[in-house]
């Protein structure tokens, strides 16, 4: 067992964990953070996406000792406590169906707009291409992000 | 008619819980420190006898509580045919099948111990395709087939690997039905007869949430299962039946299905969930969790069955289809307890949405040593529509008739006789065709395809070429005739309501649709309605969330429940306010209150009486908590028909029809296909929520496009799946979507549907394969008869066509089935004028 200290959604966490445990297992089983989902356990699907020191990672591929001293943010941590503007766009576009991929997809889209507030359609697609969704055909997800970008641009111009 | 809530694109009522990650899926539920974990022991053989199982080492492994084998549960189960055991008993029939399970205190101990279970096998020949399964000297997978219990409309052939044969023999002149078995006579009056063979491989559902279930058998002998399921009541029924020897009855078994992370048919019926039910009974008082890995999700749940289809079509010179013979050989896998109904459904409907005088269909459910074939969005229709709609284009080409015109000429109309004799329902097929045609005209004007590098000339310099493909589709719910739904609506103090139903919100949006139906009847705003996830103890009965029947069937139940509660309100108010209103017919509901036609000042708000009762001047109260109930069963449906002809029953409640088209771009050097535009028009009767209908088009179409462009299951010669992960079995990402998808809603009301609605969820993936196949043919003049139509296959076909004199290689490996040459048109037929236009 290793002692691990890290920040989780702005809160200091100290846990004892086996070195072979993944961040996804630690979050879900030991810390009760359920928004990251296990869809493949191989880093393919993106359902377990979280932010590690500000960058999106597949938490199923991160071993717990790797997060020692790091800052971890999950979907629970980006709402304070209300929906983010981007989440509101997803809501207004009926973007998700079953919702299993939603936490990962929301974080990837959030990161995309943090890095590039005015992505083109192709850049939006590229930015979300690591998160698998089987229900929606992606169109309503992409439309929500594109709408968020357009609205932000329009607001900025108006200001 | 003007509606307040129906036909409006309301936001999903479950939107917020999904967008915030609050939605609880089965693996998100907590069961405390007492939770145990199970891991199964898998068969490494596709076909073998189990000689001996030694569990002693596994049992002694640290953390292990129990090791369970087939001997502990020698009970058969199944939805339509009881052909499988909970754990393999005596014989294994596919690689990955569960032979035993270890229950341990933690997942790591369970996994470690599962490897220590020693199973001695005696391998048997593995049957990995339908040809081998049907060969004269084949190995039988189920020597006891004749003893299996099954529904009365299945016809297993004892002593063979044919688990079910659905026969259809139709001749519009009913006396002549015997002539149908004489194939030559059937095609005698055709001017052109074209015969061909099409193949479709197996596919995986790939819901992002894997299967999972938790079972708890408490010391009072109650069994509760939490499962990621499309079918909680059907699971309860099958668990109770299978475990009846333990003394369990239906009231002792409870199934709770929280949010489900995608299903597509994969989570219908009962598959791995029965393990949680059985294992829980061995460790009373302790919950046991079993979760499938992504690999198990591929090879040990239902797969979409593969099919080899032979199609023979006879047509008149004017394009009238006179006769159709189809043989569908389904690779139904090791167990067909559910999958044989896919075979049945396809057999009933393999004519496609066409009016055909003479029909002969044989649809065979064939046992093979591959994972069980079962329900998958489209339920057999996607598979036969690929061949049928490809074939119709080939027929049209030979007749030199526009393929869309050929379809219009034969398109089924209301009242036409279906292949099994019943009448076709109201439908907007022609309207759908015409709307798609309009969109196709726009495709020609798309900037990117000018100048239109037209087809068929392989020598053209440009590497890019374009093609358009068109196809029709249809599908009926495939259900037992008594598949039914029920609903309860209860009011809360503030006049909000809870709708209790047992359909499952898989993402399709049924919660929102049910809320809209209740909102319309009761005139309650959408934000005051909650629809509950199912718990078989508390929510009323629902057969299963499959067959695209929920909007129609559960919608009817909710409509009835809402009407029931409305009638109770009218009765109560007219009784207690006799001075103010005339009678029941004087009342109507508006903005969460009861109003009177005759007395405009009359208004009683729901919240003033729905729970509290009406407050009377003397201090007493009238009424009481209001509760509405509704049940729906299609009482006109029957599956009983003549086994030799399929005539006489009404197995399908109605068909949903539509048309679709694609514009594709092919890079001839790489074979890569990109899709500038796809159109799909569907007659859903009434779009209760147009945006949700559109969502089904986007999602279903992409799922279908993936099956035709790249998805494919690969097995090695021992029957082991080679690509049971998302790295090797590619599903589409955001980079793989068509540039434009146009969803067109046609509304030709379903008379017995809620507000005229009928289902449309599965249908949107059905035409995807033939629109691409036909577009490839349009672009390159090449007909590819096997799915998927990969880039590699296109390049191989192009090379072959350029080097015809070099012989069949390299194209041949992709066309493994011998094809007969089309019968040429007779002299007279060639002399006859082509009648065009209509």
Task: Give a structural overview.
- The complex is a heterodimer of chains A (159) and B (838).
- In chain A, 39% of the residues lie in helices and 16% in strands.
- By secondary structure, chain A is α+β, with helices and mostly antiparallel strands.
- Chain A folds into 2 domains: 2-76, Beta-grasp domain (Ubiquitin-like (UB roll), Roll), CATH 3.10.20; 85-158, DNA polymerase, domain 1, CATH 1.10.150.120.
- A 5-stranded mixed beta sheet of chain A has the order 2-1-5-3-4.
- In chain A, a hairpin with a 2-residue loop joins β1 (2-8) and β2 (11-17).
- In chain A, 53% of the residues are buried.
- The model of chain A has no long low-confidence stretch (mean pLDDT 96).
- With 838 residues, chain B is α+β, with helices and mostly antiparallel strands.
- Chain B folds into 3 domains: 15-22 and 484-632, Aldehyde oxidase/xanthine dehydrogenase, molybdopterin binding domain (Aldehyde Oxidoreductase, domain 4), CATH 3.30.365.10; 31-124 and 211-291, Alpha-Beta Complex (Aldehyde Oxidoreductase, domain 3), CATH 3.90.1170.50; 306-479 and 640-814, 2-Layer Sandwich (Aldehyde Oxidoreductase, domain 4).
- In chain B, α15 (690-709) links the parallel β29 and β30.
- In chain B, α10 runs parallel beside α16.
- The radius of gyration of chain B is 28 Å and the shape is globular.
- The chains are: A alpha+beta (159), B alpha+beta (838).
- Chains A and B meet through α3, α4, α5 and α6 of A and α1 and α15 of B.
**Quick one: CATH superfamily of the largest domain in chain B?**
Aldehyde oxidase/xanthine dehydrogenase, molybdopterin binding domain
Percent in strands of chain B:
15-25%
Largest sheet of chain A: 5 strands, mixed
Rounded radius of gyration of chain B (Å): 28 Å
Number of domains of chain B: 3
- Per CATH, what is the topology of the largest domain in chain A? Ubiquitin-like (UB roll)
Helix amount of chain A, in percent? 25-40%
Q: Quickly give the CATH architecture of the largest domain in chain B.
A: 2-Layer Sandwich
Count of discrete structural domains of chain A = 2
Level-1 CATH class name of the largest domain in chain B: Alpha Beta
Derived structural class of chain A: alpha+beta
CATH superfamily of the largest domain in chain A: Beta-grasp domain
Task: Supply Rg of chain A.
Answer: 16 Å
For the biggest β-sheet of chain B, the strand order reads: 3-7-1-14-11-12-13
**Bulk shape of chain A:** globular
The poorly predicted ranges of chain A are none
State the shape of chain B. Answer: globular
